[in-house]
Structure formats: structure tokens, C-alpha cells
């Protein structure tokens, strides 16, 4: 695990964009794994800048989102599908038809999860996965005690994550869905390269556990310790509990 402590969240995002730029230049048909939430926004902005000034192109790339709320229509402003369109797809030159997400409105949720796994495999697997981390150490929506070998499936969101995410729903906890579809930890760690980005003191304990704690389902991100190519990019506040 490579851990980089940047001077700021913006610098961490720029370093992440450098890594993605290198990867997409080496393989224009890169398969990118996309996280939603606030952590990766700086990376997406930086990628958009580089696409717009001609330094890179994502025209041949494809992407797979990590997760989606259950029960929100794809055009609901807080559905991860809409969010990723706003913060990423519309700002870069990727073909929107090649940006995929789990179907949170599927009638047969189990079949939708299996199909999603098959689609990732059919695309050749994820080359570079961008990850955020929850205050409780979750990655995607794999909450504490999730199996470290889990695959894409339906999960119940914890109260803490719903509280954390209620800021996106105007502070209304009741408006935050109770379930989601999420790539499993076993799915995520199959990505060839993983970039985890975190900023702020609120993430400091999760980062300490991820980098220095024992591997445990109690802190799902600790599963990344077994992966051969993980870069953790932090601002000083997120790094403040590291030894
Ligand atoms: C979102 C996701 C979540 C977030 C995490 C941190 O697709 O997978 O694991 O990365 O909840 O969220 P932010 O970045 O908003 O602090």
C-alpha cells in the first residue's frame, strides 16, 4: 500500500489524476471504476480540466460505478447515476453509454447483481478503481462486518452512513434510502489498480485502521492491505492519526 500525504485535498486529487492520466495514455480503452460522494469530485474536476485542454481523452474508456441506492429512479437527483453524470460523465469525453451502474430499480435484484458482475468481467475487469472511504471504514457500501469476499449484492445502509449522506438529501434522514446495491469487497479488490482518496479529520480513524490496523471485516477497507497496487492519497487532516 502506497500512502501519500498531500498538502491539500486538491493536491491529492491532482496526484490521483496524474496516475489515471498515465494509465489512460498506456491503455486508451481503460476500464475505470467510479466512486460517488464528495471524495472523488476533485479527481473528476481535474480529469475534466485535462480532457478539456487536450492532455488526455476518455473517448475510448468505459466505466463502472461502485454502487447505487435502491428505489431511486435513475433521474432522481441523488441517484448515483444522476450524480455521476453531473460530477463526471457530462464533464469529460467518455461515451455515456459506456458508463455503467448497478440497477437500483430492478425487479429482480439478485439477477441484476449477477448481470453487473458479468458486465464488469465482459469488459475485461476494472483497470483503475477510484475509492472513497466512509467514516466507519466502508468502501462502496460494504459496511462493517461485510464479507471480505463479497460480490455485488443488496445491502442495508447503516444509520451512520444514512446520517452521513443525509447532507445530500437536504438534511432529511428519512429521505435517504435504506438499501443499496453495491459491488462487493471481493469485486473491488479484483481491480488491477486502486486509488483511495480521503480528506478531513472525520476520515482519520478509518484511514488509521485501513493503513495500520489488522485486516478485519470490522473495517472493510482493511481488505485493501492484501492488494498489490493500492495508492492511498490523503490530506493532512485525514492522515493525522497515522503513526
Ligand atoms: C460512493 C461510495 C462510498 C463513499 C463513502 C465516502 O460511491 O462508494 O463508499 O465513497 O461513503 O463518501 P464521501 O466521499 O462523500 O465522504
TrEMBL record:
- Site positions for Part of the allosteric site: 146, 153, 155-156
- Hydrolase is among the record's keywords: yes
Q: Report keywords, A-Z.
A: Allosteric enzyme, Carbohydrate metabolism, Hydrolase
Reactions accelerated catalytically: alpha-D-glucosamine 6-phosphate + H2O = beta-D-fructose 6-phosphate + NH4(+)
Q: Where is the active site?
A: 67 (proton acceptor), 136 (for ring-opening step), 138 (proton acceptor), 143 (for ring-opening step)
Give every Glucosamine/galactosamine-6-phosphate isomerase domain span: 7-227
Described by its record, this protein's role is as follows: Catalyzes the reversible isomerization-deamination of glucosamine 6-phosphate (GlcN6P) to form fructose 6-phosphate (Fru6P) and ammonium ion.
What family is it from? Belongs to the glucosamine/galactosamine-6-phosphate isomerase family. NagB subfamily.
What is the name listed in the Swiss-Prot or TrEMBL entry for this protein? Glucosamine-6-phosphate deaminase
- Organism of this sequence: Terrabacter aerolatus
Its lineage opens with: Bacteria, Bacillati, Actinomycetota, Actinomycetes, Micrococcales
Amino acid at each position: 500500500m502506497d500512502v501519500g500525504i498531500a498538502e491539500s485535498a486538491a493536491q491529492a486529487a491532482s496526484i490521483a489524476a496524474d496516475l489515471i492520466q498515465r494509465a489512460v495514455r498506456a491503455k486508451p480503452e481503460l476500464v475505470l471504476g467510479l466512486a460517488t460522494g464528495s471524495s472523488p469530485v476533485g479527481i473528476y474536476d481535474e480529469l475534466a480540466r485535462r480532457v478539456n485542454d487536450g492532455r488526455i481523452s476518455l473517448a475510448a474508456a468505459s466505466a463502472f460505478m461502485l454502487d447505487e441506492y435502491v428505489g431511486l429512479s435513475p433521474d432522481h437527483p441523488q441517484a448515483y447515476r444522476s450524480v455521476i453524470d453531473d460530477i463526471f460523465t457530462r464533464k469529460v469525453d467518455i461515451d455515456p453509454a459506456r458508463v455503467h451502474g448497478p440497477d437500483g430499480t430492478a425487479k429482480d435484484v439478485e439477477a441484476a447483481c449477477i448481470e453487473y458482475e458479468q458486465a464488469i468481467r465482459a469488459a475485461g475487469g476494472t483497470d483503475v478503481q477510484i475509492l472513497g472511504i466512509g467514516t466507519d471504514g466502508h468502501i462502496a457500501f460494504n459496511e462493517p462486518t461485510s464479507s471480505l469476499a463479497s460480490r455485488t449484492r443488496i445491502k442495508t445502509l447503516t444509520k451512520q452512513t444514512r446520517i452521513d449522506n443525509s447532507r445530500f438529501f437536504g438534511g432529511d434522514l428519512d429521505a435517504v434510502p435504506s438499501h443499496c446495491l453495491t459491488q462487493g469487497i471481493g469485486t473491488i479488490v479484483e481491480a488491477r489498480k486502486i486509488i483511495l482518496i480521503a480528506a478531513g479529520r472525520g476520515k482519520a480513524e478509518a484511514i488509521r485502521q485501513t493503513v495500520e490496523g489488522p485486516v478485519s471485516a470490522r473495517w472493510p477497507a482493511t481488505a485493501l492491505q492484501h492488494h498489490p497496487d493500492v495508492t492511498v492519497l490523503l490530506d493532512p487532516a485525514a492522515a493525522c492519526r497515522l503513526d
